Amino acid sequence: MSSHTEHTEARDDAQGGHLTESREGGAVAVADDPFADPGLPPHEPRRQDVDERAAKRSERTVAFLFTLSMLATVGFIVSYVAIPIDEIVFIWPFGHVSGLNFALGLTLGVALFCIGAGAIHWARTLMSDVEVAEERHAIEATPEVKAHVLEEFRKGGEESQIGRRKLVRNTLFGALALVPLSGVVLLRDLGPLPGTKLRHTAWKEGSLIINEATMQPLRPEDITVGSLTQAMPEGLDPHSEDFNVEIAKAAVMLVRLEPEDIKDERSADWGYEGILCYSKICTHIGCPATLYEQQTHHALCPCHQSTFDLSDGARVLFGPAGHPLPQLRIRANDEGFLEALGDFDEPTGPSFWERG
């Protein structure tokens, strides 16, 4: 029988749904999948499989990479602590760059790269490289499958030589244990904890009240009935680094009312000759509540329309604000300037979860 006839018969048998064998005797075809399955190539041992000295060299290489990762992680932490954030260095070919950013990027990159490179070299030279084909199975695991999985896991542990190659195992654990410290150290930028900073401002006894517009101390006669003046404590420098942090808590507004228009007795006692000093930071989300209605003595926050009655202890009349604007106790000193009798008796600005 000719080869053409043999090929035709093999094709006819395949179309009939039977497994057939080609002329070469190795490829198999079925009716639904007529393409020959080439099968798996014969396994060829690696040098490390037959030469223990080569395996030891690979083991030392993997351990070196994991150890280098540990050293790079330590370098990351040291760089973060030791290098000033504003230090600029020249590094060719990058030019002038932030020394801290360059050190952090380099050390973290080396730490992660060495773990990956070590794992790949371990897998390619020491772990078993025998290819195994398995049929797909249902998701449900039978007791037999579970036993098979556990056995395969045990066999994988043996083939990976993680128990035998203690140097690789121990350095891997060291690298994996240290590299997360890089992220833990970065949490430092979330702190320090505020402590009692939210409860205190730059105001203290004897602090002069400074007009924000003129930067001059205020006298009682500078504030007329029906007016609103924005002010801050003395000693704050608008050009200082922490000015915005401090003014966000210490900014105040002063209004002068006729004494008979002041409804709250304590509010009148804390003022001076009808001059009342309130925090201008809205107790909702911290916008400046300085839109003043002269006839009603109401202060309006432009962000969400919280409205405060300055003639009645700055209580909330409308809007989402949770509590009145804190009031600052004031007096006139011997030189005739308005000054504070101390800090606010409660935190200024928006509410926070631990506010008492």
Automatic annotation (TrEMBL):
Residues 249-339 form the Rieske domain. The keyword Cell membrane applies. It is found in: Cell membrane. Residues 1-24, 43-53 have a biased composition (Basic and acidic residues). The keyword Cell membrane applies. Residues 25-38 have a biased composition (Low complexity). Belongs to the Rieske iron-sulfur protein family. Iron-sulfur subunit of the cytochrome bc1 complex, an essential component of the respiratory electron transport chain required for ATP synthesis. The bc1 complex catalyzes the oxidation of menaquinol and the reduction of cytochrome c in the respiratory chain. The bc1 complex operates through a Q-cycle mechanism that couples electron transfer to generation of the proton gradient that drives ATP synthesis. This is Cytochrome bc1 complex Rieske iron-sulfur subunit.
